[in-house]
Specification:
By secondary structure, the protein is α/β, with parallel strands linked by helices. The protein contains 7 helices and 11 strands. Bound molecules: S-adenosylmethionine.
């Protein structure tokens, strides 16, 4: 279903068919809880996969075991900035970019306030309030948030030592268009981390632009293979990891997914 025009002129650019979910209050509160929520708010009576918690922080630490310069980092599709603030512990400057005005605004506000009260879903229309806060080690003065399109980045952003694209590619209308110029935003020796559960949906990505999840001439096409074909001309493959994550919908319902993370060093 095409997105309804909601009065934001910039939403009618390259993503006119993109769902407006990420501008909604529901998305802001779900993502604030996803990135900053406590175990007791996320897991009903402590039941559930604890290894799936703190996904944003784990993404923001993917660079840690590798030798590299740690001056500037970019969090593309940063949502409410959990990974951006995690990276602020290691990098002098971290830029978080997201297409959603509402998510970027919430990230900036949390950076200024340090904590926020949010309303989370219990059951049906019932909600309760809870408080979320920046992790104690975050350095918000090193982080800044910009609204922008990952498929059309401004060269004036400059270059980075680490770029994170966490669970972004399967939410873009044209993931290859985003991935192809990525090397030009990295310094030599810089690292790109791409994570995704590869949940391809025509609501976000027209089928002709899916990186995988279909058969071609009777052969299965997998996104991990397509990613390697797109990135290997300019990058050396470093490693892959499985990253479980959990997004709480309401008190008794969480989405459990396993993102595939691949790390690449620019030659
Ligand atoms: C599945 S969420 C992942 C958010 C975050 N990286 C995480 O791992 O929790 C996808 C994010 O991509 C953002 N997004 C979608 N299209 C985008 C685009 N063209 N440019 C930048 N961000 C985009 C959405 O607003 C949303 O915040």
């Amino acid at each position: 279903m095409p997105a309804k025009y909601d009065g934001h002129p910039t939403l009618m650019t390259s993503q006119t068919t993109h769902s407006n979910f990420y501008e909604s209050d529901k998305a802001v509160s779900e993502y604030l809880l996803f990135h900053y929520g406590s175990e007791s708010d996320l897991l009903y009576q402590g039941i559930g996969p604890k290894e799936a918690l703190n996904f944003a922080q784990r993404c923001g630490q993917l660079h840690q075991k590798f030798e590299m310069r740690r001056d500037r980092a970019l969090d593309l599709g940063c949502a409410v900035g959990g990974a951006t603030f995690a990276m602020s512990e290691s990098f002098n400057e971290v830029v978080g970019i997201d297409f959603s005005h509402a998510l970027v605004e919430a990230a900036s506000r949390l950076g200024h306030l340090g904590k926020m009260e949010i309303s989370i879903s219990l059951e049906g229309e019932l909600k309760r309030n809870t408080e979320i806060a920046l992790p104690a080690d975050a350095l918000p003065n090193r982080a800044k948030f910009l609204q922008g399109d990952a498929m059309d980045l401004d060269e004036q952003l400059g270059t980075f030592d680490f770029i994170l694209m966490a669970n972004l590619v399967d939410r873009l209308p044209d993931p290859a268009r985003c991935l192809k110029p990525m090397a030009s935003f990295l310094n030599k020796g810089g690292i790109l981390a791409v994570t995704s559960p590869y949940t391809w949906l025509t609501e976000y990505t027209p089928k002709e632009n899916w990186l995988g999840g279909f058969a071609h001439d009777g052969e299965p096409v997998r996104a991990a293979d397509h990613l390697r074909d797109l990135l290997s001309p300019q990058f050396d493959f470093l490693e892959e990891q499985n990253l479980p994550f959990l997004i709480r919908e309401h008190e008794r319902k969480n989405q459990f997914s396993i993102a595939h993370a691949t790390l690449w060093r620019k030659r």
